[in-house]
Write a structure and sequence with these properties.
18% strand; 13 helices; two-stranded antiparallel ribbon; Rossmann fold; 37% helix; nine-stranded mixed beta sheet
C-alpha cells in the first residue's frame, strides 16, 4: 500500500472517530456552575491558545478534594520551520510521514486526554479513579514553557504562525486549578511524553505559587528522554521561555538538567518517579530524525536509545538515590514498529500490563502513598553489559 493511500485511510479513520464522539454524545460537557462528582468537564480558557491560533481548553474531574493530580499532557515538539510545518494528522501517522506535534485540540484529541489509563473513571482497575484531576492539555510544541509567536512557511509555502503559548496556557490553567481545588493534602504532578519533560520544569512553580501547603507531593515523568544539543538555543530563541527555564539547561539531556536543578532547590520535598520502555518507538524516531535525518525507528537507533536510557537513569540515581523507576519492555504488534511502547500512564495498559508481576498503576499508587520502589531495572543492567 503506497503512502498516499495510507494517508487517506488515516485521515478517514481520524474523522470517523471524531464523528462518533460527537454523534454518540461522548464529548465532555463545558463545566457548569455546580459540577457533578466523577464526571469529566471541559473548561475553555479565554486567554489560552493552541499552536495554530485556535481555541484552547483543559479538562477537570471532581473526586476526592484532598487528592489532586495535575497532569501535563504530551503531544510532540517543534523547534524549527521544518517541524513547525508538519503537525500531527491521522494521515501522516498512518503513512509514516514526519509528524512532530499536535497544533490544535480538535475533538479527536479528547481520546488522548481523558478517561484512559490514569484518567479512567468508574472502574475498579484504576486506583486513581476517585482522585480529582486537572488535565492541562497541550497543542503548542514547546514542552508547556513557550512564550513566542513563531513565523514559518507550511508545506505549501504559505506563511503561518506557530503560537508557542504553552506557558501562558499553563498559567491560565493553574488559575482554574486553584479556583476549584483549594488545598489538597496529596498532590501528584505527572506528565507523559512532552508533559514528562515539563514536570521538572514546572513542579516548583506549581507548589510554590499554588499549593505550598500540600503535605505529600509526588512527581512522575513518563517517557521523557530526547537527546538534542540545541535545547538551550531552542528554549531561549525559538520558544522564548523565561530565564528560569533556560538557565539550568547545560547538556543535550533537558530532562536530566531540569531534574538536577529541581532537586538542588527542593531536595526531599518531593517524591521523584520516572518510567520508560527500553526501545520507545516514538522517541527513537525523534532521536533518529535529529541524528540521521530519518523520522523512523530501527533496531540500531533502538539499541542506542536503550544505552542512553541506562545512562540517564544512572545519573538520576546519582542526583537522588531515592529516585524510583518503572522500566518495561512492552510491545504491541503493528503499533510499536519493532520497538516498545511510548508512554503508558494514559494508555489502556496502565491498569493491565505487568512488568515483573507489577502493574504500573499499582507501582504509582504505592508511591503516592509512601511506598516507593523500582521495577524492571534488570532491563537496564543488561543493556549496559552489552
Amino acid at each position: 500500500m503506497n503512502k498516499e493511500l495510507k494517508s487517506k485511510i488515516g485521515d478517514f479513520v481520524e474523522k470517523t472517530i471524531e464523528k462518533a464522539i460527537i454523534d454518540f454524545g461522548r464529548e465532555a460537557d463545558d463545566i457548569p456552575e455546580s459540577p457533578e462528582l466523577m464526571k469529566w468537564y471541559r473548561v475553555p480558557l479565554e486567554r489560552g491558545m493552541s499552536g495554530d491560533g485556535s481555541e484552547y481548553h483543559i479538562y477537570l474531574k471532581f473526586g476526592n478534594p484532598d487528592k489532586l493530580c495535575i497532569f501535563l499532557s504530551g503531544g510532540g515538539v517543534a523547534w524549527n520551520e521544518y517541524m513547525a510545518a508538519r503537525p500531527v494528522t491521522g494521515g501522516k501517522v498512518a503513512a509514516g510521514l514526519p509528524n512532530y506535534y499536535w497544533n490544535n485540540l480538535r475533538t479527536f484529541t479528547q481520546i488522548m486526554n481523558i478517561n484512559v489509563g490514569i484518567t479512567e473513571i468508574n472502574t475498579e482497575k484504576n486506583p486513581f479513579s476517585d482522585w480529582s484531576f486537572v488535565v492541562i492539555t497541550y497543542a503548542t510544541g514547546d514542552f508547556h514553557i513557550g512564550d513566542n509567536d513563531y513565523p514559518f512557511k507550511n508545506e505549501d509555502g504559505e506563511e503561518e504562525i506557530l503560537h508557542f503559548h504553552g506557558y501562558k496556557n499553563f498559567l491560565e490553567s493553574m488559575k482554574v486549578s486553584k479556583k476549584y481545588f483549594k488545598n489538597p493534602g496529596k498532590l501528584l504532578i505527572a506528565g507523559n511524553s512532552a508533559g514528562a519533560f515539563a514536570v521538572p520544569a514546572l513542579a516548583g512553580e506549581i507548589v510554590d505559587d499554588y499549593y505550598p501547603e500540600a503535605e505529600e507531593i509526588t512527581l512522575f515523568s513518563d517517557s521523557g528522554q530526547l537527546l538534542f544539543d540545541g535545547w538551550r538555543e531552542t528554549a531561549e530563541n525559538i520558544w522564548k521561555a523565561k530565564e528560569s527555564f533556560c538557565e539550568p539547561i547545560e547538556s543535550d539531556n533537558i530532562t536530566l538538567d531540569w531534574y538536577r536543578n529541581l532537586y538542588k532547590k527542593y531536595g526531599k520535598r518531593f517524591r521523584y518517579l520516572y518510567s520508560s520502555s527500553i526501545h520507545d518507538f516514538v522517541l527513537c524516531s525523534y532521536y533518529n530524525d535529529i541524528k540521521n535525518k530519518r523520522y523512523e525507528t530501527d533496531e540500531k537507533i533502538q539499541r542506542e536509545f536503550h544505552i542512553k536510557l541506562s545512562k540517564m537513569i544512572s545519573e538520576l540515581k546519582e542526583i537522588n538515590p531515592d529516585f524510583n523507576f518503572f522500566i518495561n519492555d512492552w510491545r504491541i504488534p503493528l503499533v510499536t514498529m519493532g520497538g516498545t511502547v511510548h508512554t503508558s500512564v494514559r494508555e489502556r495498559y496502565f491498569n493491565v500490563f505487568t512488568q515483573n508481576g507489577t502493574k504500573m498503576s499499582d507501582w504509582l499508587y504505592d508511591a503516592v502513598n509512601g511506598k516507593t520502589y523500582d521495577v524492571g531495572m534488570e532491563l537496564l543492567r543488561h543493556s549496559v553489559k552489552n
